[in-house]
């Protein structure tokens, strides 16, 4: 009977260890607009120098309505900017914001 209990205890430990491994292997999905893995340190510094922030302090001046805004490509959730590399939030802002010019 002792060997049965010991065997059961080992089995339970093995099962719980596998559950822990699975929990650690699953990483939360990354927000593509916050993924700077392909952006160099120089490009990140350029963003900072331009005063880029995720949320515009000026309600009517956002990257999404800036002349320099590059809209998201098919299937993407964030756009880009003509001045620097990397993802850009529609709601973001930098000191080089310029109103869009609509030709008509």
What does this structure look like?
By secondary structure, the protein is mainly alpha-helical. Helix content is 32%, strand content 4%. It contains two helices and two strands. A two-stranded antiparallel ribbon has the order 1-2. The mean pLDDT is 82.
Provide the structure class.
Answer: mainly alpha
Main sheet summary? 2 strands, antiparallel
Instruction: Give the overall form.
Output: globular
**Average of pLDDT:** 82
Could you list the spans in which at least 5 consecutive residues all have pLDDT below 50?
Answer: none
- How would you spell out the order of helices and strands? HHEE
Total count of helical runs of at least 4 residues: 2
Q: Which bin fits the share of residues in helices?
A: 25-40%
- C-alpha end-to-end distance: 88 Å
Give the spatial strand order of the biggest sheet. Answer: 1-2
Oligomer classification: single chain
How large is the radius of gyration?
24 Å
How much of the polypeptide forms β-strand, as a percent range?
under 5%
The tally of strands reads 2
